[in-house]
Amino acid sequence: MKRRSVLASLAASAAGGRAAAQEARQLGAGRRAYGGRSPEVHATRFFGDSPTPGTGASRTPLQDTVGVITPSSLHFERHHSGVPRIEAARHELLVHGLAGRSVAFSMEDLRRLPSVSRVHFIECAGNSGREHAGNPGETAQKSHGLVSGSEWTGVRLSTLLRIAGVQGQAQWVVAEGADAARHSRSIPIAKAMDDVIVAYAQNGEPVRPEQGYPLRLVVPGWEGNVHVKWLHRLQLTAGPAMSRDEAASYTDLMPDGRAWQFSFEMDVKSVILRPSGGHALSGPGFHEISGIAWSGRGRVKRVDVSVDGGRTWQPAALQPPVLDRSLTRFTLPWAWDGRDTWIMSRATDETGDEQPTRDRIVAMRGTRPGPDGFNHYNGIKAWHVTSGGQVTHV
Ligand SMILES: Nc1nc2c(c(=O)[nH]1)N[C@H]1C(S)=C(S)[C@@H](COP(=O)(O)O)O[C@H]1N2
Ligand SMILES: [Mo]
């Protein structure tokens, strides 16, 4: 859209300003030792009932976020046996197995080691699976809210493994959490030595309890389940542990009855967040389309947006920073003509992988009954904009 027409349509739609200068002046509130958000802001995580307390997930209100960092209080949660209460002063991380020697690191030990800070997304493998099943829910939060972005700070896993020493036969690292489920996942040694972070901080403060306080694994680009929270043990092994979470669940059933195992990387995906399901456009004219794209295989290279139901596509702008295996914000100026339409986004990552249509995924993987659909579903997401400006899911 040309700049002049953007401004013209905005000027036409903007309401007359109120005389700010005439508002009464009064002394503001005092200082606070720990800040909170404005009482006018109400975005919350969403969760339904769950059969047992402590299990289940809560979803990030993506439609209320901007940029690529999710406020820690709104980071999605997924836990299998609740949030354990852990005292950092007494917490230890044991590295053992096919190591040169067993080492128990205290939190203080970890703080003394060289640190890194990286911005990465974490996404549950089940995120947007209900799109596949055909019942995604009406908002972006319900359909795609099991992904969040944070800056994670901690020690490289490779640093800890080098300190403990890695025996020649060690091919895997089994990470275990201190929660009642003793959640554990196996990670190939090559990934462990590459970019995995043992994180003690998130967005500038200690990791939140729901995110794994005092210590969690961050495994850039890989399915959320591998990012073991409340991390207390790392065992070097010759083979994978075949734990419940990598054998019974987090495998991907194919139409022929066989299953994919260890589908670690999250595929390229995107979703338009503004406008998205539940929003109402105030009228025809200028609206910025804004959304997020991400890939577990590297940086997002491009995002194309269609505002005519997929007939034509335009390249969206990628808002810096565009980081490796991080949420990436895209925007497109849009002059809505007021007519009924469908808007959708299609991301491509730096490996050349392009987000597929739902039809293509269904052709490859079939459909099966069940409310939650498949893991690792990354189809193109469309929103319906009615002539009245209501935005609904398709
Ligand atoms: N110890 C432990 N780690 C865990 C889990 C768990 O239940 N226990 N859930 C996993 C799953 S399935 C996901 S998707 C991510 C979610 O991380 P978050 O709750 O910080 O968003 O944590 C993973 N790590
Ligand atoms: Mo998950």
UniProtKB/TrEMBL annotation:
Polar residues bias spans: 52-63
- Ranges where the Oxidoreductase molybdopterin-binding domain occurs: 80-241
Quote the Gene3D superfamilies the UniProt record gives.
2.60.40.650, Oxidoreductase, molybdopterin-binding domain (3.90.420.10)
For this UniProt entry, the molecular function terms from Gene Ontology, in alphabetical order, are: heme binding; molybdenum ion binding; molybdopterin cofactor binding; sulfite dehydrogenase activity; sulfite oxidase activity
Domain Moybdenum cofactor oxidoreductase dimerisation positions: 264-366
Coiled-coil ranges per UniProt:
none
Database matches in SUPFAM superfamilies: E set domains, Oxidoreductase molybdopterin-binding domain
Give the record's keywords alphabetically.
Answer: Metal-binding, Molybdenum, Oxidoreductase
The record's annotation in InterPro entries points to:
Ig_E-set, MoCF_OxRdtse_dimer, Mopterin_OxRdtase_euk, OxRdtase_Mopterin-bd_dom, OxRdtase_Mopterin-bd_sf, Sulfite_DH_SoxC
Cite a single GO BP annotation. Answer: sulfur compound metabolic process
Cofactor(s) needed, names only, are: Mo-molybdopterin
Keyword GTP-binding annotated: no
Q: In the Enzyme Commission scheme, what number(s) does this protein have?
A: 1.8.2.1
Query: Region entry Disordered: which residue ranges?
Result: 30-63
Protein name according to UniProt: Sulfite dehydrogenase
> Where does this protein come from, organism-wise?
Ramlibacter algicola
Gene encoding it? soxC
